[in-house]
Amino acid sequence: MNYAKYIDHTLLKQDATKKQIKKLINEAKKYNFKTICINPSWVKEAKKMLQKTNVGITTVVGFPLGATTTKSKIMEAKEAIKNGANEIDMVINIGKFKDKEYDYILNEINVIKQKIGKNILKVIVETALLSKKEIKKISEIIKKSNAEFIKTSTGFSTRGASLEDIKIMNNVMQKSKQIKAAGGIKTIETLKKMINHNVTRIGTSSGVKILKNEKIKKE
Fold first, then answer.
1. What is the pLDDT of residues 161-172, one digit of tens each?
2. By the 8 A CB rule, do 137 and 144 touch?
3. Confidence label for 211 from pLDDT (cuts 50, 70 and 90)
4. Measuring CA to CA, which of 58, 164, 185, 196 is 20 to 30 A from 45?
5. For the structural domain made of 3-218, what CATH number should be given?
C-alpha cells in the first residue's frame, strides 16, 4: 500500500522558518506525500517550489481556534486558493457549536465550500473539546454539508485523534464523507489502524519517520 498518499505532511508551528518550510517541501517531493499542510503565509512560496510535482498544498483557515468571523474565514480561504492552495482545512466555531447554533455551523461550512469551488474542504472539529455526543452531532452536521472531509483535530489542543473519535464519525458518515485523522499519529502502527477504520487522510509531522520505519521493517 502507498501510505505516502494518505499523508498531509504537516508543519503548522507558529515559529516555523523559511528553512524549515523548504525542508518540509523537499521531503514531500522525495516521498511523494499527498499534500503538505502549512500556514497560509507560506502558500505562495510553496506553490513555486512544488511546480511539476504531484504534491498538493493544504492550508488552514480560522486556525487553530475557529473563533474568527465567517467573513474572515472566507477571505482567508479565497486568498489561499488564489495563492495556490488545493485544499482548505477550516476550524469550526466550537463555542457556537456548543451553544447549539447548528445552522451557523452548517452555513459557515457551506459558504466557504461555495467560495473555494472544486477545491477540497476539510472541516476541523477539535474532538478533544467535544463529548462523544457532541462528536456524533457535529458529524451529523458535516454529513449534511458540502464539505468533502471531517477532520478530528488541529494538533494544538489537549490531544489529537483517537480510534474512538473515528468510530463515532464512521457510524454517522457511513462513508458519505471522508475522514482525516490528525494529531498524535507518529507510528506506522497507528497510521494503519486509522486507515483500517476508513480514514482516508492522515495529518502528521512524522510522515518521514513513519515511512522510514515501514521500509526498515520490510527489509
1. 999 999 999 999
2. no
3. very high
4. 185
5. 3.20.20.70
Is the model's pLDDT at 214 over the cut of 90? no
Please say whether the beta carbons of 46 and 16 come within 8 A: no
**Residue boundaries of the structural domains of the chain:** 3-218
Neighbours of 195 (CB within 10 A): 16
User: Which residue is catalytic, options 137, 151, 165, 177?
Assistant: 151
* Catalytic residue from among 89, 113, 122, 177: 89
DSSP assignment string, the chain: --GGGGEEEEE--TT--HHHHHHHHHHHHHHT-SEEEE-GGGHHHHHHHTTTSS-EEEEEESTTT--S-HHHHHHHHHHHHHHT-SEEEEEP-HHHHHTT-HHHHHHHHHHHHHHHTTSEEEEE--GGGS-HHHHHHHHHHHHHSS-SEEE---SSSS----HHHHHHHHHHHTTSSEEEEESS--SHHHHHHHHHTTEEEEEES-HHHHHHHHHHHH-
CA distance 72 to 50: 27
Q: Dump pLDDT digits (tens) for 44-90.
A: 999 999 999 999 999 999 999 999 999 999 999 999 999 999 999 99
Question: What whole-number distance in Å separates Cα of residue 49 and Cα of residue 72?
Answer: 27
Active site residue 89: yes
Among candidate residues 34, 137, 177, 180, the one labeled active-site is: 180
